[in-house]
Specification:
With 191 residues, the chain is mainly α. The protein has helices at 26-33, 35-50, 57-70, 74-87, 91-100, 109-123, 130-138, 143-165, 178-187, and strands at residues 4-7, 12-15. Helices cover 62% and strands 4% of the residues. The longest helix has 23 residues, at 143-165.
């Protein structure tokens, strides 16, 4: 029997495509269901979002959040948006600004150029153009930063499709992501 979760605000029941044998939201339910795949997936997230990189952890979480937003993955957007908000000056105002008006967002020109590359990757890897790469390099983006942005964006396309492809549920309210977000920021993805 598949478990359903009812959204109290809309009274709509969400039923995953498979019986996850737990009531955890988003990727959390999937990780609990298949611990063997959880370890490498969380290891990759730890490396990409918290490992050594010239990009800050908050910047990398912002990239993950924006790609997740573009892919329509509510759970990943709210989770990584929270992680970014907790680590960036300006918090959710910065995350929301990226979603609504990247050009007007209070970010460096370099981060805006890198986010444009991530946005292209979310639409399809071949959407990244030499002009985008040159624009990023013009504002001092390094090859490592460009590499990391493309890999984060590509990985989050995978994570988003994993979460939504199995019809997991996601809390609507950002506050529901705060406790977990604080834990991730403090302890990481594989703690």
């Amino acid at each position: 029997m598949r478990l359903s979760v009812t959204d109290s605000a809309t009274n709509v029941a969400f039923v995953a495509h498979i019986d996850l044998q737990n009531r955890l939201p988003g990727i959390l339910g999937l990780l609990r269901f298949r611990p063997a795949t959880a370890k490498p997936l969380m290891g990759l997230a730890e490396l990409l979002l918290r490992g050594e990189s010239p990009l800050s952890r908050g910047e990398r979480e912002l990239i993950a959040a924006e790609v997740s937003n573009l892919n329509g993955c509510q759970f990943c957007y709210n989770a990584h948006g929270t992680h970014a908000a907790l680590q960036l000056d300006g918090g959710w105002d910065v995350v929301d600004a990226v979603v609504t008006d990247l050009d007007g967002a209070p970010l460096s020109d370099k981060l805006k150029a890198l986010l444009r590359i991530a946005i292209a990757v979310a639409a399809g890897g071949k959407r990244v153009t030499p002009a985008m790469i040159e624009a990023a390099k013009t504002v001092d983006a390094s090859d490592v930063e460009i590499h990391d942005v493309v890999l984060i964006a590509a990985a989050f396309c995978m994570y988003n499709r994993y979460v939504d492809g199995l019809a997991t549920w996601a809390p609507d309210d950002r506050i529901d992501y705060l406790e977990s977000g604080r834990s991730i920021v403090a302890n990481g993805y594989i703690a």
